[in-house]
Amino acid sequence: MRIAFMGTAELACPCLEAVAKLSGQQVVAVVTQSDRPKGRDLKPAPPPVKVVAERLGLLVQQPLKIREPAAIDSLRAAQPDLIIVVAYGQILPKSVLEFPRLGCVNVHTSLLPRWRGAAPIQYAILHGDHETGVTTMYMDEHMDTGDIILQRAQLIHADDTSATLHDRLAKLGADLLVETVRLVAEGKAPRAKQDETRVTHAKKITKEDGRIDWTRSAVEIERQVRAFNPWPGTHTHLGDLLLKVWKVEVVEGVSGNPGELLPDFIVATSQGGVRIQELQPANSKRMPTDAFLRGHESKVGSMLG
Predict the structure, then answer these.
(1) What is the rounded CA–CA span in Å between residue 218 and residue 76?
(2) What is the mean pLDDT of residues 271-281?
(3) Residue 304 placed within a domain
(4) Model pTM?
(5) Where are the strands (E) in 46-174, listed by range?
(6) Distance, CA of 127 to CA of 297 (rounded, Å)
(7) What does the alpha-carbon distance between residue 123 and residue 94 come to, in Å, rounded to a whole number?
(8) Looking at the structure, do residues 8 and 156 belong to the same domain, yes or no?
(9) How many domains in the chain?
C-alpha cells in the first residue's frame, strides 16, 4: 500500500516513524509545512516532521498552502492509496480528500466527539476530565467530524501538564495508527458515526488565554496552569512585574480578596487559594518561589492581577 503522510508538529513524529517501519507499506511522500523562523536570531527551522522524514530518507514536500493546484498535483503524482494526517495544521480540500483509493485517515488526540478542534489536550486538562485518549477516523470536509475507526483511552493524572499528556498520547497514537493501517489494508477497518449530541469544541488557544483571572476558583486556576504548560503559559502581574506561573497547588480554607497575596506566597481566589511553587519573572529564568523571594520584595496584602 502506498501511503502519503501529512504532519508538522512533534505530536506527529512517532506516527511517522511507526508507519515508516511497517512491513508491506511504503511511505511515498511526506507533506509538511514550510520552515519557520525560530529562536532569537529568527533563522528558518524545519518542522519536526521534516527532520524525521529526512532522517528516514523519505521524500518531503512543503507547499505553502495545500489548496494550491500545484501542491495538489504534486501530492497526486505520488499516487497514494491512503493519506494519513496527524497534526498537519491545514484543512484539506475536498479534491485531496477524494483522490486516494482508500481515503484519508486522521489521528486526533481526544475521544471524539469530545474536544473536536485545535487544542484537545489542553481542554481535557482545563475542564477536569479524568480521561482522554486517541481517535483514528476517516476524514471529511469538516473539522474532526468523520467516522470513527478506532479509539483508545488514556487516564489523565492529577499532576499532568499538556506536555506530559502530549507525550503519552503521541505514543498511544502511533500504536493505534499502526493497528488502523493494518485494518485499512485488509479491508476490515470499522466505521462508526459520531454522536452529535456529545460534541464539545476545543478552540485555538491564544496567549491571552494564559492570563490568570483570580476571581475564578483555585481548582480552575490550578487546571489552567497545567493545561497551558508549556504553551502559552499562564501569567499575572505583581505590581509592574510580569510573572509567568508554572506550578501551583490548591490550598483549602483560604480567605481573602481574589488576587490578594497571603503568607507563604499563597494567592486568594474566589474559592480557596493557590500556593505558587514555580514562577518566572520577565526576562529571567524559571525558578522555585523561594529563589524568587530572595531577590524580590513581595509584601503580604499586595494584589496580583
Answers:
(1) 52
(2) 97
(3) no
(4) 0.95
(5) 60-61, 82-86, 104-108, 116-117, 131-138, 148-155
(6) 34
(7) 28
(8) yes
(9) 2
